[in-house]
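Sequence dictates fold. Below is an illustrative record:

_____
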Amino acid sequence: MLEPSFLVLLGGLVAIIVLLMVVLLRGSRRGEEEARLTVTEYKLLAYLAANAGRVLTHTQILEHVWGPGYESETQNLRVYVSQLRRKLDPESHQPQMITTEPGVGYRFIADEV
C-alpha cells in the first residue's frame, strides 16, 4: 500500500501515483486501467493536482510545466488541457476535474488531496 502522500484521489475516478508517474482511471467500463499520458501531460496534471482547488494562471502553468520563455504559449496549454480532459474523462461533455477560469487559467477539482 502506498503512503497517502504519494496518492491523489479525484472524484473517486482518477488516482495519480506521483512518484511512479502513473495515472489510474477507476470506474471505467473495463474496471481500473492506466491512462497513457505523455511526459508533458503528466507534468501538467501533476502540477494542477498539487494545487487542487486553487486557480492557477496560464502564466504560472506555462512557466512551471514548459519553463521560462513559454509564458505566451497559451494555445499550447489549451491543447494539452483538452487532451487531458479527453483522456481522463472521455464520456464527460462538461469538464469536472479540470475547470476553466475564463481569462485567468485553470482549477483542478479533487475530492481528496
Summary: The beta strands are 7-10, 14-17, 22-28, 31-34, 55-57, 98-101, 105-108.
